[in-house]
Structure to design on (144 residues):
């Protein structure tokens, strides 16, 4: 079972960007741990990051015939992108929305998520550990 882990804008700077909010681990560190956790669960993960909305949408479309599930941290597009919501709505498998920070404790503009309308599960506030939790939970969802 293949699972896509998609990361949106600015997450390439993870570990260097506002570490007091997002922590010191890089996206590469996180990806390495997700690959390991996925292996223990019998899953394969494909992990991608883009700063471009259209690129994320194209990957969500690709997932339609390639991936069983999607884990997505859409970054700030969470709060702005009906287009990403629509792309996820055209995907048939489970979707987990993930935020490193506890968005509801932050600025008001981070409290609303378009993506949550489609997400089966939302994880927020676990720091980067949320990615491993998402992989574990995705395994559960895919087992039915
Ligand atoms: C984020 C939260 C968003 O509000 C923010 O724009 C991000 C990261 C998180 O992982 O906590 O870029 O999705």
């Amino acid at each position: 079972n293949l699972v896509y882990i998609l990361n949106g804008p600015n997450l390439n700077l993870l570990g260097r960007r506002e570490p007091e909010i997002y922590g010191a681990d890089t996206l590469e560190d996180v990806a390495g741990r997700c690959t390991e956790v996925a292996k223990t669960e019998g899953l394969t993960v494909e992990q991608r990051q883009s700063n471009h909305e259209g690129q994320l949408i194209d990957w969500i479309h690709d997932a339609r015939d390639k991936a069983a599930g999607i884990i997505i941290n859409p970054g700030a597009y969470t709060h702005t992108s009906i287009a990403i919501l629509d792309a996820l709505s055209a995907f048939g498998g489970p979707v987990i929305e993930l935020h490193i920070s506890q968005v509801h404790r932050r600025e008001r503009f981070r409290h609303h998520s378009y993506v949550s309308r489609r997400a089966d599960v939302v994880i927020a506030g676990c720091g980067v550990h949320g990615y491993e939790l998402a992989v574990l939970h995705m395994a559960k969802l895919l087992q039915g």
User: Anything to note?
Assistant: The helical segments are 19-22, 27-40, 53-66, 82-89, 129-143. The mean pLDDT is 98. The chain has five helices and five strands. The domain at 2-143 is CATH 3.40.50.9100 (Rossmann fold).
